[in-house]
């Protein structure tokens, strides 16, 4: 029996189409070798599309909902007012599709230089799980006396037991299959209401996972521990806003946005999960072949793992890691190969069974 | 005429008394050489004091209010429930004494190793100004259905035009005397209400400081730019919570908590400003002579500058930087000198006019 999966492909803006193109070439190779199939539907979305049509997530939602997974390039263009795509597309998808967990592996791959002196791959192998649907990202607030010297802006962070529970439970299960350590990252000494609820959920669920060691680190202290002692962490779970911040720090440590990747997981099966590289649309280098497709290809590996094609996922990741180690630089003219050459090389390693 | 200043000294817990002791020895030397005087009053405060007496900031407030400045060691002890001292003392002082600006220089001193590969002192010379009295640090929120599966916690961030304005105006003035660049760090695309108010204040005040170039960086992107391209920044202004996070990242870059220092400035003269190293009380190494007093001594330099003793401030800073460059390690048994030897050496350089 051949498994077949429906995959929505959203190349987006800037370098998005290039890196997604490479990812699809690698997907072809994986299908051939591992004997599964994907039915791909490509959708226009992003800044260019919005400028042409005014359409954001709303118009796409129903078409995407029936898909097994979404492979996402990148979005953004200086001509679109900041906030429009973020709130109208990215957050809208995360919230409407209940992509409750934003999962970002922080791994230093062999041969990829970290800006942190002396950091080695063995010491840097963790996953950050970010709550992806609530907290400060509800984006609600109110302003009184706007435009006057007495203006006051109140910004809200809404945290529900249900929302926290699903992402913490997922994190415990993830830790069970790894080094069995879960660290909560928050600022419970200051954000008392939200912090208490987070800590309470972690404490309650810890009883169900006695094999998992539980730890806590303040978000400010995380800025120390993550770069200097990443070996301290296995799975880190945190709220939406803190997750946004510390995952970018994680990407720095592992050698930059070019190699960082993420999954936006729907944990209940009610809607598709979404997989994307972490880098932006980089309009300045679009079309030059300077973009590193590794982030996008690693997001493909996460997608394959999620769909249940574990062998294919591992092969794609291994091939990417091998090629990353061969590149003289991680992006730009100095990368030594073009975007499509990197993709082709990874596809070749996957197809030939060398990885 | 001899200037005389009243200084409240709060050594606090753990290594606080040791490092403050060294700072006072350096202050003696500075007074001798530069011909000013301080009248010092020492106050017990911190975890030990709280455990003995139950007293927090409230009991000290009126005694401290009349002082010209406060020199602060560090606070904290595992026996005190997290949150008590933070909210009952530190935040209470910042808010009641209207210490509106938390100023943290991020400088890589020559001879101090940064964990960031290839970072040089010339590229790392910036100041982060953190709003210090409001935002998420109002610590207010509410929880409904606590203890049930339907629990919801709402956490508030309160931002006033007046509170933002005073710290942004201070930052513009600071930038005028430096490289004339001000960067706002926020997350305006998500935290819309608070973000709009911050951006509005920066835009409005920018008109009064046309010589200052204004820039904006999202807090997540700051995790990239701060370690990798700190030369991009001169003065960074940000809100209370983001400031808490990115100043710790700043401390990492400049070589760690041992050399990082901060001023909590009252900008109106209504109450004293407070000066402290950034490190905690480190109870595990207290009394061993392993603590580096440089952070505390650099906070003394900030205090002297604030009191108007600019020559003394510069001499104390220069002497500290010189000795920092001589230490084989920044703390611990490998520091090569004890806490008091480091202090004595810095004091000697100040007294002898060699720095
Ligand atoms: C684009 C933006 C809305 C988004 C976020 O803030 O979550 C991004 O920074 C991320 O981390 O995926
Ligand atoms: C101790 C704590 C309340 C404090 C804060 O969160 O502001 C500390 O982290 C700091 O940065 O000064």
Automatic annotation (TrEMBL), chains A, B:
Which Gene3D superfamilies did the record assign? Isopropylmalate Dehydrogenase
- Tell me its cofactors: Mn(2+); Mg(2+)
Give the keywords, sorted.
Answer: Manganese, Metal-binding, NAD, Oxidoreductase
Tell me the ranges covered by the Isopropylmalate dehydrogenase-like domain, including all copies.
6-346
The molecule here is called 3-isopropylmalate dehydrogenase
Q: What class of enzyme is it?
A: oxidoreductase
| Any one GO molecular function term | magnesium ion binding
Query: Would the keyword Metal-binding turn up in this protein's UniProt record?
Result: yes
From the record, give the transmembrane residue ranges: none
Under Enzyme Commission nomenclature, its number is: 1.1.1.85
Keyword match DNA repair: no
